[in-house]
Amino acid sequence: MIKDKDKKEKKVSSEGLSTKEKMLARKKQLESKGNGSGLVYPKEGTLRMRIKSPGDDQELGIEIIQFYLGGNLGGVISPATFDEPCPFMEKYQELKNSKDEDDKELAKNLVPRRRYVVGGIIYSDEKGSKVDYEGKDKGVLVPRSVYQDIIDLYLDEDEAGDMTDPKTGYDIKVIRSGSGKLDTTYSARACKPTKLDKKYQGTIDLEGIVRSQIKSYDELEDLLSQYLNEDHGDDDDDDDKSKKKKKKGVHKDHYMEDDEPKKKKRKYKSDI
Fold it and tell me: pLDDT digit string (tens) for 207-217?
């Protein structure tokens, strides 16, 4: 009875609002959820954030394994990030080790990427005057080059140092220029030290944010099936040439290293 009453009250509360008011309410809801996720993807321009620590003696970022499927399927974070079973990783290894040339070509399209997630407070402007997402912690997906910049800043005790310190720390600007695989560049820069507002202080559950974005094994199997049923080849010579050019020009940051380990203690990461 209580649940029904609550539902009725919620329904009544939305009635009587204008279209604009309803749209503003929905906008606020979506923003508070970070577009339905806990991850933010830097767009062209500058993203300003305050990185927060995941806890004592914890690395500031998490290395994730991602498969980019293209088209409407987008990208997925692999459970192999946490050494857990992943149908995409299993299929990639199967295709990669196949003696069939078509399988090997398909494996090249399914190469897992290495990305990094750092988390904290995101600002809606470059000056850091307004906090976005209602001040909720978010994870920011960055390439290796940006994470290397962040590490360098953290280790540079003379000029920068620990950006997570709430009193002496500083914001980070993630700058993205260009578009497309070949023309996009990233960098990270330190801002002047500023004291972090008490209401935003504390540690961040970065692993929880990343795990919240990982689909179940069954869901990933469905996505894999959709991906494999798509036409990844093309009879058009121009398209083939274009694909070859893109493949040659892909930056290391975007893909996993392809070294074969001598020992296979772990099921997934060591196999990449």
Answer: 999 999 999 99
Of 232, 245, 248, 247, the closest CA to residue 91 belongs to 232
Other beta carbons within 10 angstroms of residue 167's beta carbon come to 9
Confidence of residue 34 (pLDDT cuts 50, 70, 90): very low
CA pair distance 173, 177, nearest whole angstrom: 13
Three-state SS at 185: strand
* pLDDT classification of 204: cutoffs 50, 70, 90: very high
The answer to whether residues 53 and 164 touch, using CB atoms and an 8 Å cutoff, is yes
The β-bridge relationship of strands 113-122 and 185-193 is: unpaired
Among candidates 113, 34, 102, which has minimal Cα distance to 80?
113
Please answer whether residues 76 and 69 qualify as being in contact, where contact means their C-beta atoms are separated by less than 8 angstroms.
Answer: yes
In this predicted model, which residue has the larger pLDDT, 96 or 74? 96
CATH number at residue 147: 3.90.198.10
- pLDDT over 90 for what percent of the chain? 58
> What predicted TM-score, i.e. pTM, was given to this entire model?
0.71
* Alpha-carbon gap, residue 66 to 115, rounded angstroms: 7
Place of tokens 């990208």: 75
Number of folded domains that form the chain: 1
Q: How far is 6 from 8, CA to CA, in rounded Å?
A: 5
23 is a domain residue: no
Give the pairing type, strands 74-77 and 138-142: unpaired
Helix 217-229 × helix 87-96 angle, to 10°: 40
Q: Which domain holds residue 88?
A: 35-271
Packed helices 87-96 and 101-109: angle between N→C axes, nearest 10 degrees: 140
Of residues 203 and 179, more confidence is placed in 203
